[in-house]
Amino acid sequence: MNNISNYKLEGDNNMKKQEKKEFSKKLLVQESALIWIVTLALVTLSFICVLTGAYAELPWLTAMVALPWGAYGVSQAYYYKKAEKENLLKIKQNPIKEKDSKQEEKAKG
C-alpha cells in the first residue's frame, strides 16, 4: 500500500512522488538563513553603536560578523567536496548510459 503522504497533487491532478531533500542540503539552507539573520542583527547593532557614539564595541561586532561567515565558507567547501565525490561515484557506477549514447551516435553516423 502506497503512503499517500509521499505524494502531492499537480495542476493536472497527476500524482508525483516528492523528492526527499538530503540532510546536508537542509543543513546548508538552515545555515544560510541563520547567517543572514546574524549578519543583519549585528549590522543593526553596529548602526546603533555609531549613533550612540559607542565606538569601542565596533571591533567586537565586526568579529562577530566575520567569524560566522568564515565558518559558513568552510561548511560550503566541504559540502561541495561531498557533492563532487557523490557525483563521481554515480558516474563510476553507471557508465552504461555513456556507452549506449556513443553506440547510438555510431549507428546513426
Q: What do the pLDDT scores average to?
A: 80
Could you say how many structural domains there are in total? 1
Shape descriptor: rod-shaped
Strand content: 5-15%
- N-end to C-end Cα span: 47 Å
Looking across the biggest beta sheet, what order are the strands in?
Answer: 1-2
Helix fraction by DSSP (H/I, runs of at least 4):
over 70%
Q: What is the structural class?
A: mainly alpha
SSE succession: EEHHH
Number of strands: 2
Spans where pLDDT lies below 50 across 5 or more residues: none
Q: Which sheet architecture does the biggest sheet show?
A: 2 strands, antiparallel
Secondary structure tally, helices:
3
Rg over CA atoms, rounded to whole Å, is: 24 Å
Features:
mainly alpha; 2 strands; rod-shaped; two-stranded antiparallel ribbon; 3 helices; 109 residues
Structure characterization notes:
With 109 residues, this protein is mainly alpha-helical. It has one domain (21-108). It has helices at 23-52, 58-93, 96-108, and strands at residues 7-9, 15-17. The protein has a two-stranded antiparallel sheet. Strand 1 (7-9) and strand 2 form a beta hairpin. Helix 1 (23-52) packs antiparallel against helix 2. The radius of gyration is 24 Å and the shape is rod-shaped. It starts with 6 loop residues before the first strand and ends with a helix.
Secondary-structure topology with pairs:
Layout: E1 7-9, E2 15-17, H1 23-52, H2 58-93, H3 96-108
Antiparallel strand pairs: 1-2
Helix pairs in contact: 1-2
Quick recap of the structure?
This protein is mainly α and 109 residues long. It has helices spanning 23-52, 58-93, 96-108, and strands spanning 7-9, 15-17. The chain has one domain (21-108).
